[in-house]
Amino acid sequence: NTAISDTVGEAANSLKQGGGMSDVLIDSGQFPMMALQMIKLGEETGRLQEMLGKVAITYDKEIKTAIHRMLAMLEPALIVILGIIIAGIIISILMAILSVNDLAF
Asked: Residues 12-24: pLDDT tens digits?
């Protein structure tokens, strides 16, 4: 996303000039509040790198959890769809067999 990339670039420039990164990110309104609070805390305590790492780990876990949930919901749907397809094949085969019987008599 170009908007997020631009915001991160502005935050980096702010850091180079001796300002705060969190203020620029908060003003953009494009980042989750929890991440912004962690970044602000990292700036205040002088452990920004550590806090950015924790933010990355936290959101990686959230993404993995969301993917697992989506896959868990997708599996039953695929089973139902495959069942419908197989039922359609079976019905078409049975209809063909029964129609051949009607032609013989």
From this structure: 888 888 888 888 8
Torsional class of 19: left (φ above 0), alpha (ψ -120 to 50), beta (otherwise) = beta
Judged on CB neighbours under 10 Å (0-12, 13-18, 19+), 100 is exposed
Within 10 Å of residue 24's Cβ, how many Cβ atoms?
18
What is the band of 26 on the pLDDT scale with cuts at 50, 70, 90?
Answer: confident
pTM higher than 0.85: no
Q: At a CB cut-off of 8 Å and minimum separation 6, what does 12 contact?
A: 21
Q: Which residues contact 54 (CB under 8 A, 6 or more apart)?
A: 38
